Amino acid sequence: MEIQKFNVLGVAMSAMDLDIATAATLEACAQRRKGYVCVTGVHGVHEAQSDPAFRQILNHAFLNTCDGMPLVWQGRRQLGAWVSRVYGPDLMLRIMAATQDGKYTHYFYGGAPGVADALRDEMQRRFPGVRIIGTYCPPFRPLNEAEQAALSADVAQKKPDIIWVGLSTPKQERFMAENLPKLDTTLMFGVGAAFDFHTGRIQEAPRWMMRVGLQWFHRVLSDPRRLWKRYAVIVPAYLFRIFLQRTGLKKYPIGEENKA
């Protein structure tokens, strides 16, 4: 399946909707074609402006879906109204529903202690027949040699088709790019807070706020001490750069040549 791409500040975004993302996932699993899936919002695009290595990770993803409406609007401007949001928590539910026949297996990596196990129980309750064959709760730091070996051994024994990674951006994208060649799996999905949303640890923004591009504002209101400084920088910087890209005042080519 050929996926169209569009350019957001030098980051190649996948033009799609949930149906296309699901079909591409099932096709890759059937063909045992390894890859990682980034679910990218404005935060990820912002990080990519000052980090060429991270930008390269996004641009080498099997799929790099639009996690937020500002990226969708840019895609619609370039390709048409059919471009849709492929939000991480929604994508997880869609893939779980599509694999209830048990043909493909899942593994959860991430979350605070107990969260991955709670997510496994919740997904098995909601999608009877889905096969979740392993979980791993990592420390809040890079894995040491022994932990890396334990993870690799567990995955080698269980051989999941899909590993769902619930860390934060850019940590989860770096983890997937580094570990995909090391682990006996086909696809890895970086879905961030989906682990917490689906287990009820964090409340999602109302759908109307998502549709109008205000999910970031809901997140700030939910955790203002931690997030207000981040978004006070990210939102104006993104809007300014998008203005430069749309007017042609600055070029943002896709690739390592795009310098901040």
Structure summary:
This protein is α/β, with parallel strands linked by helices. Helix content is 50%, strand content 15%. The chain has a single domain, classed as 3-Layer(aba) Sandwich (Rossmann fold), CATH 3.40.50.
What are its keywords?
single chain; 260 residues; alpha/beta; Rossmann fold; six-stranded parallel sheet; two-stranded antiparallel sheet; 12 helices; 50% helix
Named CATH architecture: 3-Layer(aba) Sandwich
User: What is the average of the pLDDT values?
Assistant: 91
- Uncertain segments are none
Q: How many domains, as an integer?
A: 1
Main β-sheet, spatial strand arrangement: 4-3-8-7-5-6
What is the terminal-to-terminal distance?
32 Å
Give me the Rg, rounded: 18 Å
Classify the fold: give the CATH topology: Rossmann fold
**Fraction of residues in helix:** 40-55%
Largest sheet, if any? 6 strands, parallel
In total, the number of strands is 8
What is the H/E string?
Answer: EEHEHHEHHEHEHEHEHHHH
Rough outline: globular
In DSSP terms (H or I, runs of 4 or more residues), the helix count works out at 12
Would you state the CATH class? Alpha Beta
* Classification by helices and strands: alpha/beta
* Beta fraction: 15-25%
